[in-house]
Structure to design on (459 residues):
């Protein structure tokens, strides 16, 4: 049996058990209620007859029988006994062979059931006032009570059957619909696990929690698709970037081994091989740095923005002098929550990028301030006088190995600097993006720790 069938039958049986117990309890309560009504009527009639018996010469009056239900009074059956147990008066059916008084002595003022001539009766025995040793019994048939009980039980049984059939259908429909949605979500997860990251739950889901699960699965699938696409492009770009220096290195080695050469020719070949291997080493270092940037940092500390800016600026002075670029930075007493090495790497990458892309004899500026929307973030802006970044390139420039056409033409850089900078910023709860230009402005945000004292330096 499928899970749908098991759930349907399980819920149906549970419902059947609950309704069945409820109907049994209702039937018992109703029987007890009607029986109490009959007992009260029997006692009322018996005591009234006992009061009037001495005045009626110990015979029964024409008083109607007890009223056991809404139909009306029942037939009244009665017997009056004297002190010796002799019958003084009796109604049908006790007139021919009344019950023995001795059998009734224990039932005084307490209604009881008994069988007489194959009929089930309910009766009560009461003493006659003024004649304490004389007894009067009033009885009534239980047929009406039992008929009512049978009718109620039959009605409840029919109601139970109809309710169970309806519930089986309703529960089956609900279970099929709900489990259908579960199955669709499970199938989607199975297909995603098998590698089909384009599949989506997407169809309408009735249950709110399942709808949230479906939405989360779609978001996860979209993230996986982007990650896989990013991974494929990363591998393609890495292979492409590695192939050129490897080909150059391999060619120089093969050329050097092909025949005997002079010392000068060997020096030229080894110089070219050294350049190719240096580029390979630099690319490997950058790839390792990118991988490290994606891992969570274990040692968070208070990093002085002033110190980090000064160190980054000092380290890039040779490149700035080579291009005749002036670097101006605003030092401050801000501190950020990060690691000193990561903040230094971010600033070096941004400054290196700015110096390389700004025209000669121009200015690169770094400014530091609080974020506009919160005082819990420090914003560092790196300005250069370049032509800016095209709108369609503003996200792509942060992708690994992405380089501008000019940089590719000059075989300059690895295209990993901005990717590493953004990953490091996000690892510490910050971010990095580029503003519309020109001029070009990269905006770095990092979590702030304390206030600042501002000052401007030029190198």
């Amino acid at each position: 049996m499928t899970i749908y069938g098991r759930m349907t039958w399980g819920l149906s049986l549970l419902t059947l058990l609950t309704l069945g117990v409820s109907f049994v309890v209702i039937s018992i309560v109703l029987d007890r209620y009607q029986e109490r009504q009959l007992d009260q009527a029997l006692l009322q009639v018996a005591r009234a007859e006992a009061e009037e018996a001495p005045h009626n010469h110990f015979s029964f009056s024409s008083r109607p029988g007890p009223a056991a239900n809404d139909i009306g009074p029942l037939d009244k059956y009665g017997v009056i006994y004297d002190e010796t147990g002799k019958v003084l008066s009796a109604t049908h059916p006790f007139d021919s062979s009344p019950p023995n008084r001795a059998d009734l002595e224990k039932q005084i003022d307490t209604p009881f059931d008994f069988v007489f001539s194959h009929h089930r009766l309910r009766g009560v025995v009461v003493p006659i006032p003024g004649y304490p040793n004389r007894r009067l019994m009033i009885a009534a048939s239980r047929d009406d009570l039992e008929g009512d009980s049978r009718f109620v039980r039959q009605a409840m049984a029919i109601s139970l059957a109809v309710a169970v059939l309806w519930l089986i259908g309703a529960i089956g429909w609900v279970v099929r619909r709900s489990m259908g949605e579960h199955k669709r979500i499970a199938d989607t997860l199975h297909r995603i696990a098998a590698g089909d990251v384009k599949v989506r739950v997407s169809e309408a889901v009735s249950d709110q929690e399942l709808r949230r699960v479906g939405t989360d699965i779609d978001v996860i699938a979209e993230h996986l698709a982007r990650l896989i696409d990013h991974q494929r492009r990363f591998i393609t770009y890495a292979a492409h970037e590695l192939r050129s220096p490897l080909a150059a290195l391999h060619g120089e080695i093969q050329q050097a081994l092909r025949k005997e050469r002079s010392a000068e020719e060997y020096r030229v070949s080894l110089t070219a091989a050294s350049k190719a291997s240096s580029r390979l080493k630099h690319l490997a270092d950058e790839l390792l740095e990118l991988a490290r940037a994606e891992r969570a940092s274990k040692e968070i500390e208070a990093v002085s923005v002033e110190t980090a800016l000064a160190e980054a600026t000092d380290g890039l002075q040779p490149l700035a002098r080579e291009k005749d670029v002036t670097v101006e930075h605003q030092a401050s007493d801000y501190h950020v929550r990060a690691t000193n090495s990561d903040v230094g790497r971010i600033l070096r990458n941004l400054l290196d990028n700015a110096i390389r892309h700004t025209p000669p004899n121009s200015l690169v500026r770094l400014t530091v301030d609080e974020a506009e929307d919160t005082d819990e973030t420090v914003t560092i802006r790196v300005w250069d006088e370049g032509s800016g970044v095209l709108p369609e390139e503003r996200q792509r420039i942060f992708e690994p190995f992405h380089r501008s056409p000019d940089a590719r033409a000059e075989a300059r850089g690895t295209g990993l600097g901005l990717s590493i900078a953004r990953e490091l910023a996000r690892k510490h709860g910050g971010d990095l993006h580029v503003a519309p230009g020109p001029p070009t402005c990269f905006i770095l945000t990092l979590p702030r720790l304390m206030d600042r004292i501002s000052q401007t330096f030029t190198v």
